[in-house]
Amino acid sequence: MLKFPDDFAWGAACSGPQTEGRFNKRHRNVFDYWYDTDPQAFYNGVGPDTASNFYNDYQKDLPLMKEAGIKHLRTSIQWSRLIADFETGEVDPAGAKFYSDLIDCMLENGIEPYMNLCHFDMPYELQKKYGGWEDKHVGDLFAKFADKCFELYGDRVKHWFTFNEPKVIVDGAYLYKFHYPLKVDGPLAVQVTYNINLASAKAIQKFRARFKDDEHTVGIILNLTPAYPRSNEPADLEAAEFANLWCVDLWLEAAIKGTFPEKIIKILADDGVLWDATQEELDLIKESTIDLLGVNYYQPMRVQAPAISPKSLQDWMPDIHFDNYEMPGRVMNVDKGWEIYPKALYDISVNLRENYGNFPWFVSENGMGVSREERFLDDKGEVQDDYRINFIRDHLKWLHKGISEGANCKGYFLWTAIDNWSWMNAYRNRYGLIRDDIHTQKKTLKKSAYWYRKLSDTGELDA
Ligand code: BGP
Question: What is the domain-level CATH number for residue 382?
Answer without folding.
Answer: 3.20.20.80
